[in-house]
Amino acid sequence: MRDNPALCFPLAEYQHRLNQLRERMQERLLDAVVISDPENLFYLTGYQTTGYSYFQALVVPLEGEPISITRELEASNMVHRTWVEEARCYTDTGDAIQELFNIIKDLGLEHKYVGYERNSYFFPAYQQDRFHNHMQAGEGNLLDCYGIVEEGRICKSAAEIELMRSVAKVTEAGMQAAIEATEVGVTENEIAAAACAAMFSAGGEYPAVLPYITSGPRSMIGHATWEGRTVQAGEHVFLEMAGCIKRYHTAMMRTVLLGEKSPAMQSAEASMLEALDAAHNLIRPGVMVSDVDKCVRDIICRNDVGANLLTRAGYSIGIAFAPSWDEGYIMSLKQGDESVLKPGMTFHLLPWMWGIEGDKTCGISDTILVTETGCKSFFTLPREMSLV
């Protein structure tokens, strides 16, 4: 490993991550792993690019230096951003999988047990099939090692937590700007512009997903965002966004009312705040994630305004590239999951309400850290609905 001033964390942090990965490899009787998930590559090495739709991977043997493979254009990211000493590349007319197998052979692994991330978005089936064919020809064994890196990512280190505290300030800056920009007669685009400008001015980098900003009846459309609509008197605006620094995210939902707070909105606000408080009181190491979901879901679903909690009650959050800012594929707060909370886990809690009076969606959410004795929010911004 080589030190690099561009690394997000001290070199010792990456050495620790690599050592832990190799311990898990030994437990699974793997001689090497091929890591291709963008978030996992970033976690292990600091490598990042927006060009991750092209094949890229890190081959990690049990002993010796890992070797990376990227598209030729992206090789500079490996050199300038990471600790990796050997970075191989392929041209736009080259054969990425053949080059990958060449690395396997050069490391003497073609007859060994090699793990790969079968679930990786950017290692498509036709490439996996070719890799299998190469390994079978070499009488090697290719095995799915899904989750082998994520086991290390789920609990954040002290350095990661400190970085996420900085990210939270970026998120709050964007949300505060969006709230202040909301008034009768502005467009959703103007609110979005204010939020993005504030996040980037506060030191934020491009997030995995840009803010979700919808007004009035458009708030009922799942994962919709600004489309030029003009905000009308008596409506509400639903806001959800995540700030980002060094690919780490914290996320937040808030709701702005343009007019008086109706009885339905008062009731909805009370339910969401109650659910957040209850979740905060429940969350601690040893609690099952399904119990957190039940806690939030029971409070939201007994509402008297016709709303539902359509989704899981939360998800792990941290490193992310598009198309999503969450780590929910690692762990989600959902029904039937008996996974247990541990110190260092970070979650976006989602006591949001879809379908208030049949035509409104509102949200008040939080990003929290599981501590040794409970949990703590990353945010200080008021949770209550804002009135304009």
Structure summary:
The chain is α+β, with helices and mostly antiparallel strands. The chain is built from 10 helices and 17 strands. The chain is 34% helix and 20% strand.
Protein described:
This protein has about 400 residues and is an alpha+beta fold. The chain folds into 2 domains: about 10-150, Creatinase/prolidase N-terminal domain (Creatine Amidinohydrolase, Chain A, domain 1); about 155-385, Creatine Amidinohydrolase (Alpha-Beta Complex). The protein has 10 helices and 17 strands. The strands form 4 sheets. It has a 6-stranded mixed beta sheet with strand order 4-3-2-1-5-6, sandwiched between helices. It has a 5-stranded antiparallel beta sheet with strand order 11-10-12-15-16. Strands 7-8-9-17 form a 4-stranded mixed beta sheet. Helix 7 packs antiparallel against helix 8 (about 190-200). Keywords: Aminopeptidase, Hydrolase, Protease. Pfam families: Creatinase_N, Peptidase_M24.
For this entry, give a set of tags.
single chain; 388 residues; alpha+beta; Creatine Amidinohydrolase, Chain A, domain 1; Creatine Amidinohydrolase; 2 domains; six-stranded mixed β-sheet; five-stranded antiparallel β-sheet; 10 helices; 17 strands; 20% strand; elongated; Creatinase_N; protease; Peptidase_M24B; hydrolase; aminopeptidase
